[in-house]
Specification:
Elements: E1 7-10, E2 13-16, E3 18-19, H1 21-38, E4 45-46, E5 56-57, E6 61-64, E7 68-74, E8 88-95, E9 103-106, E10 109-110, E11 112-113, H2 129-145, E12 152-157, H3 161-165, H4 170-173, E13 175-176, E14 178-179, E15 187-188, H5 194-209, E16 214-218, H6 221-230, E17 238-240, H7 245-254, E18 259-265, H8 266-273, H9 288-297, H10 302-309, H11 314-323, H12 328-344, E19 350-356, E20 362-365
Parallel strand pairs: 9-12, 10-14, 16-17, 16-18, 18-19
Antiparallel strand pairs: 1-2, 3-15, 4-5, 6-7, 7-8, 8-12, 11-13, 19-20
Helix pairs in contact: 1-2, 5-7, 8-12, 9-10, 10-11
Length: 370
């Protein structure tokens, strides 16, 4: 089967790519600016993305007067489960004071940065560098054609953006009031998980900018709740890494801190201990045979081992080990810490792994981690 340049395939089914909020904002800016300079909005409006693609966007909203022009575009994330899919990105442009240059502001539903460590300064609208560059390039080009100075004010709004942002990392990252205008390529690749990994990196940057030296990567709510009870650390120390332990650790390898704690359930930590860097159930599996070997090394009886080998899940093996007086949670914590240390490729960072039971109780804490 062939693959369309605007699609990916998974399990033989083509997945449609979509457009980032930054691409939508850029297209809306171009259409609104054309109305401000020439009297009519462009619909559809075409832009050129950083990779050279030239998508077209239909307007969902328009408004203009002698002083300003507005254009809105509904974000289409393709087949990606993006929380901003269907959001309306509205851009309002007007002429600024002579010599003021191009400025960007957050309207309703677009966040404002309140913590250091992000690529945008504190107090600025949460409009990332690449979308700013894309919009600025269009403004400079169109203003040059009209033979006027590019003194343009850009106000971006997203109706219901504050509500949408509650489903993102923005509140934890200190981006308040709405969503961010994001994107480096302008294209959303379905299930690429790039947005989540980007949020992990941002969380690390914010924590390091605050001088936090101990970061905690958690696989989910239960592990984070347990880790918070064990560790007396501020909220910004906790990184919602989900299944992307590899993505987090590789970034920490280049952006070191004094101590790293990884907290997760037994099954996911078992996969990490066995060398998996993506802990998602669809991309890595618990190795029952390997767990049985660990139990044998710990002195498990033959009948216990035979029962464990026949198990169908990691948590079933855990229960069998418990019944046989084998502290498998502790063993996995130590093995996972060894893997984390190998990924980081440094002995300067203290490593701790917490293995959490489904009920939120601690099953194991790696030896020598304090």
């Amino acid at each position: 089967m062939g693959k369309d340049k605007n699609n990916t395939e998974t399990a033989g089914t083509p997945l449609r790519r979509g457009w980032t909020t930054g691409a939508c904002a850029t297209a809306a800016t171009k259409s609104a600016l054309h109305a401000l300079l020439h009297g009519n909005l462009l619909d559809p409006v075409h832009i050129t993305l950083p990779g050279g693609q030239q998508p077209g966007f239909a307007l969902s909203f328009e408004k203009r007067s002698d002083q300003f022009a507005q254009a809105g575009i509904i974000k289409d994330a393709g087949d990606d489960p993006d929380v901003t899919h269907g959001a309306q990105i509205i851009v309002r442009v007007c002429q600024g004071k002579p010599g003021s240059g191009i400025s960007f502001a957050a309207g309703e539903g677009v966040g404002t940065v309140t913590k250091a460590g992000l690529p945008i300064e504190v107090g600025e609208a949460a409009i990332n560098p690449v979308p700013r560059q894309m919009m600025s390039a269009i403004i400079e080009k169109e203003c040059a054609r009209a033979d006027i100075a590019p003194d343009i004010e850009v106000l971006i709004s997203v109706p219901n953006g504050n509500r949408i942002a509650q489903k993102t990392w923005n509140p934890r990252l200190g981006i308040l009031g709405g969503i961010s205008i994001l994107g480096t390529t302008g294209i959303v690749i379905p299930y690429s998980c790039s947005a989540w990994i980007h949020s992990i990196h941002s969380g690390i940057n914010v924590a390091r900018a605050q001088g936090l030296s101990h970061l905690v990567g958690c696989t989910g709510h239960t592990s984070e709740t347990c880790a918070k009870k064990i560790l007396n650390l501020p909220d910004d120390s906790f990184i919602d890494m989900g299944d992307f332990v590899g993505g987090m650790l590789k970034y920490l390898r280049q952006n070191q801190v004094e101590k790293i704690t990884i907290a997760g359930g037994f099954a996911k930590m078992s996969k990490l201990a066995c060398g998996a860097m993506d802990l998602h159930s669809g991309r890595s599996k618990v190795d029952i045979g390997w767990l049985s070997i660990l139990m044998a090394d710990a002195g498990a009886d033959q009948d216990v081992l035979e029962t464990a080998i026949a198990a169908t899940s990691g948590n079933e093996v855990l229960q069998i080990a418990h019944n046989g007086d084998i502290n498998l949670g502790q063993i996995i914590a130590d093995k996972a810490a060894e893997q984390v240390r190998a990924i980081l490729k440094t002995s300067d960072t203290e490593i701790q792994v917490l293995v959490i039971q489904r009920n939120g109780q601690l099953l194991g804490k790696s030896v020598g981690s304090g």
